[in-house]
Amino acid sequence: MSITMHAASVPVFTRFLNGLDAILSKAEAHATEKKIDPSVLLQARLYPDMFPLIRQVQIAADFAKSVSARLAGVEVPSYEDSEQTFEELHARIARTVSFIQGLDAASIDGSEAREILLQPGTPRERRMVGQDYLLHYGLPQFFFHVTTTYAILRHNGIEIGKRDYMAA
């Protein structure tokens, strides 16, 4: 039995974005309960040379929407990276989930061999076929940023666990 490109992408992105949204809610509640300035958590990093939590969430959402859009053969929507609050991050996640769920599954299915062109016309231009793009680039990048967000929150005392990460 084979799996479709849509089944391997949009539902996976959706589940983990919803889980990401839920752990952000727990972080927000924690900050309120402990009287912590939310910006402290939103700007937290695992290490000084890593992006802060806000940027990790933005990038995770960007990978979900861009990978899904490219596989569907549609233009990748552009989001400003202007979020500064938990509320704005929740809105970005919701907008991303709405976009990817609105894509036609049939336009994603069959994209295994479709050429995906990244950063066209630049020295970093890269060409991949759809299946490799999803499995060896898009999903690993997405999971890195979701996992890093989880790790930042857990490191800062938010009571979350594997079930939260897995959106179980």
Word description of this protein:
With 168 residues, the protein is mainly α. It has a single domain (10-165), classed as dinb family like domain (Four Helix Bundle (Hemerythrin (Met), subunit A)). It contains seven helices and two strands; from the N terminus they run H-H-H-H-H-E-E-H-H. It has helices at residues 10-34, 38-42, 53-72, 86-101, 105-108, 130-155, 162-165, and strands spanning 115-118, 126-129. Strands 1-2 form a two-stranded antiparallel ribbon. It is globular.
| CATH fold assignment | Four Helix Bundle (Hemerythrin (Met), subunit A)
- How do the strands of the widest beta sheet line up side by side? 1-2
CATH architectural name: Up-down Bundle
Low-confidence parts: none
Q: Could you describe the largest sheet, including whether it forms a barrel?
A: 2 strands, antiparallel
End-to-end CA span: 25 Å
Q: Please name the fourth-level CATH homologous superfamily.
A: dinb family like domain
Q: What structural category characterises the helix and strand content?
A: mainly alpha
Rounded mean pLDDT is: 96
CATH class: Mainly Alpha
> What string gives the helices and strands in order?
HHHHHEEHH
The proportion of residues in beta strands is under 5%
Q: How many individual helices?
A: 7
Q: Give me the Rg, rounded.
A: 17 Å
What's the count of strands?
2
Report the helical percentage.
55-70%
Number of domains: 1
Described by the principal axes of the CA atoms, the overall outline is: globular
